[in-house]
Amino acid sequence: MSTDPDRRAPSTGGDGAAADSWFAPRKRTAQPATAPTAPDEPAQGLRPGPVRPSAEHPAAGAAGPAAPAVPRPGRPAGGEHPAAPARGSRYGFDPAASGPEAGDRVTSGFSAEAGPAAPAVPRPGRPAGGEHPAAPAPGSGGSAFGFEPAAVGPGGFGFGAPAHGFGGRPSGAATAPAAVADGRASAASASPHAAAGPDQDTTVLRRVELPVTEPSAAAAATAGRAAAPATGSVSAAAVPAPAGAIPLQREATDAPDDDDSIWAPDQTMQLRVLPQPEAEADPGFAFAEPVRPGWTLPPVPDVAWSAAASRRRTWISRGMLLALLIVQAVLSLRLTNSAFEDEALYLYAGHAEIAQLFHGAPDYGGFASYFSGAPTLYPVLAAAVDSVFGLAGARALSLLFMLGANALLYSFTRRLFNERAGLCASVLFAFAQSTLFLGNFATYDAMAVFLLALATWIVVRTGHGHWSLPLAAAPVAALAVGVKYASALYLPTIALLLLLVAYQRHGVLRAVLRSALFTAGVGGLLAAAVLSTDYLAAISSTTTARAHGDTPTLAMIQDSARWGGLLFAVACIGTALYGRRARLSEVPGWRQAVPGARWRTALGLLLTGTALLAPAYQIHLQTSTSLHKHIGFGLLFAAPLAGVGVTRLMGAHFKFPQFAIAISVLALTMGMSQSAKNYGIWPDTKYLIQDLSYKVQPGQRWLGEPHEGPVYYLSGMGRTSYPQWTSVYYIDYTGRPGQHLSGIPGYRAALQDGWFDGVVLDWSDGAGEVPRAIRDELRKGGKYRLSSALPYQTSAGKGHFEVWLKQQH
Amino acid sequence: MSVGRRSLLLGAIAFGAAACAPSATAPIGAGGQGAAPAGQAVPGGSASPAAPRVPYNITPMLSPKKKFLGATFEGVPVSLAPVDAWASLVGKAPNLLVYYLGWGDEFQTDQTRAVWAKGMVPYIAWEPFKKTLTEIAAGGEDDYIVRTAQAIRDLNVPVAISFGHEMNGGWYPWGTKTSTAEAFVKAWRHVHDKFQDEGVSNVIWVWSPNVINPVPNVRLAPYYPGDGYVDWLGVVGYYARTGPHTFSTLFEPTLKEIRAFSAKPVLLAETASEPTSRKPADIADLFAGVLADPGILGFVWFDLKKEADWRVDSGPDSLAAFRRAAADPRIGFDVEHP
Prior knowledge:
The complex is a heterodimer of chains A (809) and B (338). With 809 residues, chain A is mainly alpha-helical.
């Protein structure tokens, strides 16, 4: 048709008007098929005969043919009338694609839609019917031929294109009709029209009732709205007479009854066709996203993650910490041995203190005179637990203390640095042998570590806040010292830490004041405690003026390096690297206020250096007693910097995880083996207690090298009590009139006189002078006989317990 | 293949539990016995770690309420068949079996255990034939002593040991002709202390002199190591064809001398009667003497044919006499409940 420009010519003017008039309603995007029925200019669209296309407005010509889509001239169906367009819409008719639309499409331009439309459009000059893929529509059968010619005639403009678009290729139909309807693509749309060329003589518009169109329509409807109108249009279009194969043909002019007969199958069709999706407002032309209500995109961040605190961060870190604490608990509980003499002594002392404090029992034992912590604090607590849950319960209490200390370590490391450093610090601290050891050891060390950690946490937590808040740490720190006197060694660290933390926010003067206030608080509490008790002598004898030993310095340095060297070394690395660079996060745009280099160095030196306190002091005293425990106190403070060191060695984005893996594997293996070794260093008294349980009779006097264990275990059976036992450390023998014999002569005299009913000795190659003298006296004196020897093996060597009983004759 | 998260978790827990479960090879302190389990030889050392346990309590056996019925036979303890034969002869099973261990010979744990299992206290007469007492006291034999001590300790049943018996006679290499009382005491104490240092508490130390009658000039006191080193006094004396042949003349003088320096219980560690017409009477005299003295624990019948036929069944009268006397309920007891 477009090949016949003449045919378009007549329609130019009217079509243009029609285009204008259609334009307006089209803007109502939802307006469906009103367009096809242009009530005002039906005649133009329907006017048969050759039309001359206007040269200057070729598209108008295209629009003209679209007009034939209008079923009947003079049909009252207005633009808004639903009935008329309904036809189209029922077929999935898209007004935009409809023939009449072409008119306004013309006005809207050619370019954009031409692209998609073009492919479906046969080349100009080709007969649409023959080669057009749409024609041999599957399912349409021969009828397809029937309406190929529909393009013929005036209506042909509109339908030629729809025909092939719609024909048998539903998918293609979606685009094809658009192309057709878009008269704009004059060249493109021309082709179908050209195809219809041969039939252009046919001037009768026929409306075709095509059963065959149904499947096509259905397919088109499913495929896209654009095809449907084509169908509808086709049915309405003039089908040339030659298309006799089509069962039902009607003159386009048989308007009234046509309507019904047309609509009926449409309605039937509608039942089978899926609901048509709502028409797009502006398909493909504009990129302005329609704003859907209730849908807002958050602002896109620069990076996908951040160093800022968030709930997710917090809980992931806490989850990892929890897993770590479980590992720590398992590793601690793996250690097994009978009560060490200190554990037994403290527990027994606790029971004695409870008896004295709450039940008015006489004071005996003089625990306050030689304990290295206040006997009324930890021992009472542990004994209370022991009386309910036994030794395992008292040890579990220590485990809780150590787990709590580690959790607090994580927390204040997180506050000083960040979560990653906190977790790394916790890992290294958890794997340290001292931590694992103390976590299953019922002495006041675990409680003291916990209280120190708590005091440190309070200081870090409140150092930035109100001046009075850090004072809350004072009673905790004082209690730590009360629980274990040696904790005082770490008070300066806490005070200085408070100074550093407060300095960040409050400047030098106020920081110093706060630190001084804290120190004064602790000092005041301790002074009051010392004045109100008589522990000072014990403090001096067990802690400050402890007896000097003779352990070589080198051996103690080696021990310290084995037990804490790894953590300390990593802490040194952390100190150095943190001093050089403050940045703690690799997140781009990390903009936290970083402390100054001097502050960082001071913090690193303070915390890392604290790890040296205990070894240095014990080296000064030349005594290695409990060094494996005491070293853990300092590691608590050095751990944060060790955590920083590990994170720094790992690098940004975990670039070098092998460092962290190597360090943690080393720490784990060393911690496990060392803690087991240290936990197996005292002989298991299980069988000794079993043996003694029937040899020790109530009321008997016994001399014992390990006497704490027997007293603890056997007093629970009611077979003995603390005053009935004499240790190898002290004797004041008064069995001989007028004499006070102490030391080895005292033991010898007592054994010669048969003062003791039995003697327990721990015999190994390293036995001390007093046990040797006692054993010599036992052998040579003949008053006692070796009743049982119980071989044992410890991680340090072999030996055996000896139980000597006084001979009856 | 997909492993569920839950099964992964369970697997991890199981692995962790298994890794932490105490095992024999776990480190000491972590529920184990160290790298070398008990009973296995430690590489590079002779010492074997003892399995921890409560040692056998021999205290009640040191002075039992009833009398030991001891014996020794040819071929024990390799074979215990003579024990059964003898028990059927005399109508009562012995509860103490003496056998001899030459110095340097390995202590046979299995044989000793079998003796104990048969209801007899193993009594080992340890005879230092190959080494002098001085050598032993000087520590040259410590390896052997320690090895033996550990074997006996780990055996953990009562074992009576008489080291260098009849030291007051001159007929053994450790006797008066080639050694001295001081050397004997030193060697005794050395052996005893070595045992004690190894944690041996299941040995009954039997100081076993010969009756003084054949050697009247040898005083016993210098040979005595001290009450702290001795549990029993094992007097050796035979009812011989000639010489003292009553309990009072055969044993009393020796007992009297011993009581001057020790109140320890006495076991007649070797006795028998030569096959004479008075053998039944000797047997009756022996039983009467043993039962009469509360300080005497019992006797050991030397049931061998060595130089003479010392066996109980050397004659029917002897056997009848022994059988009759042994029927006394005060003779013999269950060693596990002394």
